[in-house]
Specification:
416 residues, alpha/beta, 8-stranded parallel β-barrel, 4-stranded antiparallel sheet
């Protein structure tokens, strides 16, 4: 077998390939500081106490984390709604300091924003539509400037959470029982124009403050691909500026893996030109988290069932080159009832032992059959492993022709 060191041209080829191949895997860890403050002990699979949870996540192969941000969470009594800008600045900086990528999820509300509720923050409730456009721009810009100054600049930004049917509908009391400002397929065109104008202003602020960050539009309509495609077609027609299509996927709510894959294929076939990320995913280890679909015949509500689902989810996603991200929702929940009003049945930590469930160790496989190069700068000249140009670590010296990286050298193998 012959090998040749690469010239500058091949080096440039390597750099471009690795950047284009970048994928992210992690979770939404928005409650982690609250658990830590409550004295929750996190352990590794051997039962050893973990002193720095975020560093442990990175050590185990995760490379990105997501945080939610509310406008004024003090307006909500839910203990899990606590993430104001000061909270996010501190936790975001920890993520960045650990060398991980940071995804910011703007809820643009004082409480949970999802398809059934996109309530306008109390402080914004008297604003006209034009004033709301200015406010969402100013608020987004201010938050991003604060995060940037605090050393917590986001790498990916969701301009809204699960916004399939619009955002900033008004206050709950004002619009309850009405379709005011909601954006359904048959809604007045003015509703959609209002919505896309808001998104454009949010995106404008992102581009101005965090020019290298990727903007994500987040929908959860995996089970209704026609609605999803209609949403994305409207975004395209309105020239909304964004980079990534973000999706939620929980089998209990959205159906089996084949349903999810159909949605992915529909989006890919529509050729929007955007990457796709699963920005929320989860499956239970013990109890149902929804009643729309029962997957227990295939994946029982057990630790092994959760692990098998996660492994199959990763395998399915890795068949799609367009899918660049996978984020588990609330993996850090450790069952401490003093922290939240209850616990999340699809967490990745055993409430009794403090050790990760087996599914936790499946997530990193989203990056490849072996833990690859998560970023070009992460590769060290002393690394003894062989890597392919898409960042996959090889089990041994490659036996096929190609371009590889080993011990700081870019190498062409041109003969067996």
């Amino acid at each position: 077998m012959k090998s040749i060191r690469l010239c500058a041209l091949a080096t440039a080829l390597f750099c471009t390939s690795i950047i284009n191949a970048q994928k992210y895997v992690g979770g939404d860890i928005s409650m982690l500081p609250k658990y830590e403050e409550a004295g929750v002990v996190y352990k590794d699979k051997s039962g050893n106490t973990v002193s720095d949870v975020i560093a442990f996540f990175k050590q185990e192969g995760l490379n990105a984390m997501r945080l939610r941000l509310f406008v004024d969470p003090s307006k909500d009594n839910d203990k899990a709604v606590c993430q104001d800008i000061e909270y996010v600045k501190k936790l975001g900086k920890r993520i960045k300091d650990a060398g991980m990528k940071f995804m910011l999820d703007f809820h643009y509300s004082d409480t949970w924003a999802d398809p059934s509720k996109q309530w306008t923050p109390d402080a914004w409730k008297s604003l006209s539509d034009t004033e709301l456009e200015n406010k969402i721009y100013e608020y987004t810009k201010d938050c991003l400037q604060q995060l940037k100054s605090a050393g917590a600049e986001p790498d990916m930004i969701q301009t809204g959470n699960e916004i399939s049917y619009g955002m900033l509908w008004g206050t709950e009391a004002a619009v309850k029982g009405k379709n005011t400002n909601r954006c359904y397929t048959n809604s007045p065109e003015a509703n959609w124009t209002r919505f896309t104008n808001l998104l454009k202003q949010a995106g404008k602020a992102c581009r101005e403050v965090c020019s290298s960050a990727k903007i994500i539009l987040h929908s959860e309509r995996v089970a209704k691909p026609d609605v999803l495609i209609d949403f994305l077609d409207r975004m395209k027609a309105a020239s909304v500026d964004y980079d990534i299509i973000g999706l939620s996927y929980y089998p209990d709510h959205h159906g089996n893996l084949a349903t999810m894959e159909t949605a992915l294929e529909r989006v890919e076939n529509a050729k929007y030109g955007n990457d796709i990320m699963i920005v929320e995913a989860g499956y239970s280890y013990a109890w149902s988290i929804g009643s729309e679909y029962n997957y227990t015949a295939t994946y029982p509500y057990t630790e092994e069932g959760q692990r098998k689902f996660t492994a199959d989810l990763v395998t399915t996603l890795n068949k799609h080159d367009s899918v660049k991200g996978l984020f588990w929702w609330w993996p850090e929940d450790n069952g401490n009832k003093s922290v939240t009003n209850g616990w999340w049945n699809a967490a990745l930590y055993d409430h009794n032992t403090g050790k990760p469930y087996a599914a936790f160790y499946e997530l990193k496989n989203f990056l490849g059959s072996e833990l690859g190069i998560s970023a070009l700068g992460a590769y060290k000249a002393s690394d003894p492993y062989w890597y392919s140009l898409d960042g996959r670590r090889m089990n041994s010296r490659p036996q096929t022709k190609g371009i590889y990286l080993n011990n700081g050298k870019k190498i062409i193998i041109n003969e067996k």
